[in-house]
User: Fold this.
Amino acid sequence: MTEWEDDAYVLSARAHGESGAIVDLLTETHGRHAAHVAGAASRRMKPFLQAGARVVVNYRARVPDQLGSATLEPIGEGPSALFDDPLALAGLSAAAAVTAGALPERQPHPGAFLAFEALIACLPLTEVWPAVYVRFEAGLLQDLGFGLDLSRCAATGSVDDLVYVSPRTGRAVSRAAGEPYHDKMLILPPFMLSAQGGLNPGDIGAGMALTGHFLDQFVFAAMNRPLPAPRERLLERLRDAGAL
Amino acid sequence: MAAAGPEIERLIALLAKLPGLGPRSARRAALALLKRREQLLLPLTEAMADAGARVRPCQTCGALDTCDPCAVCSDGSRDGRLICVVEEVGALWALERGGSFRGRYHVLGGLLSALDGVGPEALRVEELIARVVDTDVREVILALPATVDGQTTAHYLADRLSGAANAISVTMLARGVPVGGELDWLDDGTIAQALRARRPV
Assistant:
């Protein structure tokens, strides 16, 4: 018998039978984990069986490899706080879809959980969260073993004036070393180097292009899948809002 | 070994596919039907055949009815300037049950869903835009579920509608404490929504 309790975020819930659901969870210590939740169609449970809801999971399975069942206890308001903000809703859907698509099941990814937690906390802050979203995706890449190395220039070793990232290696490149390859390089927005880097026009777009490139190349292409559609929809929404 | 002939087993198997019925309850329902052949089985067969032959989606609103346009769309006493957008026919029936809405409806046929890969092209969005542009609609009420998918769909429709017609107002249903709801039984999200939507007494 396998049994544990953990903090988690709901990534998705699919109806299973008439009253149950298969819920995809991002747990703090057990990674991404699916579970059958009985009574999921009930009026009590429906409000928090949605992407972004914070819950305490009590998981139980007879055999470790088997899909177990879980009971969920909600914590806090959940995603309903974002219902009036279409951009934040798009951010939440994109984060949940990218997490669900990128993380393998049943492997601990505490970094991804913390990054998701930080993003959810920032989503009500309209001016802040798009930058946090980009850092969340960078954190996800890091947790998956494809972290960007932004500490020094891959060509010269310099730690100053890092403005590019090599699309092949994910390592930072200084302005002087990258200038001849400007068209091929990915732009490194300053906010990804430091929280004090400030946010200039075009930085969010550059950040999304940067993390999108590596998520696509290292994670989703390896699974023969495109980047999740909600991420594309988020990009459209950000573009329409003039936030890219 | 089957306890009954193939016809009865087929009846049980089909009944078991209905919502609320599992194999055991389907067996009980089949037995009840067969025992009350004249009163239940034959009228039900006739009603189902009739419904199967005549019920179609309304070309205007997407509701199910035996006539097209449906009874709601062809009811002249209803306010054609009000359109209430619902996810499925079940929601339309729920609103009609209350009898508090006297406008017309538009059944979307689902919600935008990232996970299930449902995009705008899979829903009756263009039909809604065309109705709003072509007729004298003043208000569109988005009566969609208070879920992430429901609200994402609502925002998408609000954007599309405001782009298509300037003069209409797009509204949503209120969220908060249900009638008869006691606060200590409500979830945190509903209480927070109700607090945000408070109004002067």
In short: The domain at 6-54 of chain B is CATH 1.10.8.420 (Helicase, Ruva Protein; domain 3). Chain B touches chain A at residues 19-20, 114-115, 117, 119, 146-148, 151-152, 155-156, 159, 175, 187-190, 192-193 (CB under 8 Å). The two ends of chain B are 68 Å apart (CA to CA). The first strand of chain B starts at residue 56 and ends at 57.
